[in-house]
Design a protein that fits this description.
By secondary structure, the protein is of the alpha/beta class. It is built from seven helices and five strands. Strand 2 and strand 3 form a beta hairpin. The structure holds zinc ion. Residues 63, 174, 184 line the site of zinc ion (ZN).
Length: 212
């Protein structure tokens, strides 16, 4: 074997070692990226399916439950039995914090499936055209949304605003709806961060209807 052949074998060996190393180095990084994904893939189209023809929704109103724990069934029970509301649960969606439903789990109410107006603000004109989303937690008295809740909320609001052509300026906090004073969804709800996230998604997907 001459020198030329030996050099060629050496180069091939070095290239093999190098590519194998890159593979082994990159595998853990790829795995980390997978582990970091905290909210499971949401099939929002399936989740938001309605059993009847859809209402013309114009606003999205964000709430907190003002309780540390809860889920759709518990709030439904309270609204039905204590508040005597015919359709029960006031909201269309409830996003859990891991107490009585999954952390970041989106529960869909009968109100949504039947496309019935909400009962989530004291302003009935608003309730007729506003989708109500409630995050389990008390964000006025020390609590904050969990990362999973926040990610689910961003995904859900982005999906609904796109589906019903709702501009970002019509995504409101409960306390922004004209009515008697309420702190809902609490001073710790990160509204600026939430809107920034939605704007970033809108600019990537060219959702021209989303604007302040
Ligand atoms: Zn509220």
């Amino acid at each position: 074997m001459n020198n030329k052949h030996e050099r060629l074998i050496l180069y091939i060996s070095l290239a093999t070692i190098l590519s194998t190393s890159v593979l082994f180095i990159s595998l853990p990084i790829f795995d980390c990226a997978k582990v970091k994904k905290i909210v499971p893939e949401l099939n929002l189209s399936q989740l938001c399916h309605a059993d009847v023809s859809e209402n013309q929704w114009e606003y999205i109103v964000i709430h907190h439950s003002a309780t540390e724990k809860g889920n759709a069934a518990r709030f439904d029970d309270y609204h039905r039995k204590k508040r005597k509301w015919e359709h029960g649960l006031a909201y269309h969606f409830v996003i859990g914090n891991g107490s009585f439903s999954g952390d970041g789990e989106i529960e869909v109410s009968e109100r949504w499936k039947k496309q019935i107006h909400g009962a989530h603000t004291a302003n009935m004109n608003c309730n007729r055209v506003a989708i109500g989303i409630c995050l389990v937690g008390d964000f006025e008295n020390g609590g904050t949304p969990t990362n999973n809740q926040f990610e689910s909320l961003v995904a859900l609001v982005q999906y609904l605003s796109s589906r019903y052509n709702i501009s970002l300026s019509d995504v409101l906090l409960h306390k922004q709806v004209f009515q008697k004073g309420t702190a809902c969804p609490g001073k710790n709800f990160p509204f600026a961060e939430f809107k920034t996230r939605l704007l970033r998604i809108a600019s990537k997907t060219n959702n021209s209807h989303i604007a302040f």
